[in-house]
């Protein structure tokens, strides 16, 4: 089909990249959903693109997406303040030294919510692990960033519907009648966010994550309409929730699929806690991200391996009128890559015994590299650490697999279910 081009083949799994690169070389032009793109699938060329930000422009796409996907007016998406303030301000506010407050708020919520949720489960209650974890992480992280007044429960399902609509909204050339349901999903979210923002008190504003405040202050200084403020906030909510919860879900599912790792992880966590002052799980959860990674190397290896196997990231760049797409996945998962013949398997020990020599770009790279990666790392590690410390899990059925249709947006989404029974863990 001329409009779809290679889109369908691209959503059938990793073979597309391997077969096309074998036939045409690692850089090829393909037609996808009415657009012609140049796909770059090999590490040296991807690095070249990432390093040459003046020839390979990213910010056009970020502004365009702010309008077409998140619903900000096109004029304000391309306003001069966007380049000079709106992008750099939040970027600075998400650096490792600046996210301690957000990590603290997230950990405060997690350590109350997780035990309460575990206590509320009946002993033989079947639970879908993905729903269980998504609900907790979505609630704790959205309230940590957007203040305790954020309507996490009321926005959770509309957010999931909006997230499903993202790929359609992102298709510039799709006829408008085909976009209608996606636009409706966005409208629902924008209204909810705008209504909440209208009700936020000045005390609550003080507790917003600095990255959000940096954006809101630019919008208010330029007197942008409320709907544009809501679109900016929706953009950040999407960045916060579309990837990290699924990262935690994949990591826990893989740990449970390899149950021999659990005792090692639990003793790593228990030993780490015993060295802390005071020696409590809470102290561990509140550590800065850089310390957390060093304190829990085995758990971090599980996270890194999950990023390698379960992300599919596209970095978009404009070169004159062409669009170049850096495709991270083939380098991280194909058996012919530096990761070796077992690249398709989840094996966290490759990050512990020096075998992890390949390149992976789960967070993209260059000027568009994910600014939430430090927070995401703390968010996911603390969730897994508290979950496996506080919960005993029996897997009853597992049909969880990546949704290959969701290419290029970071963490692959799970389809299928991962049914478990969860009990509060009695700690000796
Ligand atoms: C495991 C979790 C995450 C993954 C895999 C991930 C992945 C990505 C990827 C692939 C990009 C695009 C990179 C590119 O175009 O080169 C991105 C951009 C971005 N991410 Fe993340 N992300 C995660 C978590 C987060 C979190 C928790 C936040 C916010 C708190 C966040 C905020 C952002 C923002 C604001 C951008 C846009 C940066 C820009 O366009 O300059 N991300 N992320």
Automatic annotation (TrEMBL):
Q: Where does heme bind?
A: 370
Q: Which InterPro entries match?
A: CYP450_sterol_14alpha_dmase, Cyt_P450, Cyt_P450_E_grp-IV, Cyt_P450_sf
Q: Which cofactor does it need?
A: heme
Q: Does Methyltransferase appear among the keywords?
A: no
Sorted keywords for this record are: Heme, Iron, Metal-binding
Gene Ontology molecular function terms on file: heme binding; iron ion binding; oxidoreductase activity, acting on paired donors, with incorporation or reduction of molecular oxygen; steroid hydroxylase activity
> One Pfam family, short name please?
p450
The record ties this protein, via Gene3D superfamilies, to: Cytochrome P450 (1.10.630.10)
What the record says about family reads: Belongs to the cytochrome P450 family.
What name does UniProt use for this protein? Cholesterol 7-alpha-monooxygenase
The scientific name of the source species is Saitozyma podzolica
Q: What is the lineage of its organism?
A: Eukaryota, Fungi, Dikarya, Basidiomycota, Agaricomycotina
């Amino acid at each position: 089909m001329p409009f779809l081009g290679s889109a369908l083949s691209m959503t059938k799994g990793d073979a597309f990249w391997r077969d096309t690169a074998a036939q045409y070389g690692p850089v090829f032009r393909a037609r996808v959903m009415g657009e012609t793109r140049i796909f770059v699938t090999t590490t040296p060329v991807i690095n070249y693109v990432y390093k040459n930000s003046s020839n390979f422009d990213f910010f056009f796409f970020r502004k365009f997406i702010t309008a077409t996907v998140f619903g900000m007016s096109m004029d304000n998406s391309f306003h001069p303040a966007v380049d000079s303030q709106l992008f750099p301000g939040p970027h600075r506010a998400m650096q490792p030294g600046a996210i301690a407050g957000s990590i603290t708020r997230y950990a405060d919520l997690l350590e109350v919510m997780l035990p309460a949720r575990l206590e509320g489960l009946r002993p033989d209650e079947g639970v879908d692990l993905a729903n269980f974890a998504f609900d907790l992480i979505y609630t704790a992280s959205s309230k940590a960033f957007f203040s305790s007044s954020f309507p996490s429960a009321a926005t959770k399902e509309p957010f999931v519907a909006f997230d499903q609509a993202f790929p359609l909204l992102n298709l510039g050339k799709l006829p408008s009648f085909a976009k209608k349901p996606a636009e409706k999903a966005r409208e629902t979210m924008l209204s909810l966010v705008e209504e909440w923002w209208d009700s936020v008190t000045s005390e609550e504003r003080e507790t917003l994550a600095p990255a959000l405040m940096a954006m809101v202050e630019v919008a208010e200084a330029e007197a942008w309409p409320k709907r544009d403020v809501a679109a900016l906030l929706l953009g950040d909510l999407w960045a916060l929730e579309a990837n990290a919860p699924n990262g935690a879900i994949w990591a826990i599912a893989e740990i449970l699929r390899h149950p021999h790792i659990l005792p090692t992880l639990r003793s790593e966590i228990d030993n780490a806690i015993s060295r802390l002052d005071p020696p409590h799980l809470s102290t561990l959860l509140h550590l800065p991200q850089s310390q957390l990674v060093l304190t829990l190397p085995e758990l971090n290896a599980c996270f890194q391996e999950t990023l390698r196997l379960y992300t599919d990231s596209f970095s978009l760049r404009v070169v004159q009128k062409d669009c170049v797409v850096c495709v991270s996945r083939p380098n991280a998962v194909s058996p012919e890559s530096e990761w070796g013949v077992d690249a398709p398997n989840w094996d966290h020990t490759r990050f512990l015994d020096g075998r992890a020599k390949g390149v992976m770009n789960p967070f993209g790279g260059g000027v568009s590299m994910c600014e939430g990666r430090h927070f995401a790392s703390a968010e996911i590690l603390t969730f897994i650490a508290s979950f496996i410390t506080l919960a005993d899990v029996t897997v009853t059925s597992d049909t969880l697999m990546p949704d290959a249709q969701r290419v290029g947006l970071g963490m692959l989404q799970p389809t299928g279910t991962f049914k478990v029974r969860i009990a509060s863990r009695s700690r000796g």
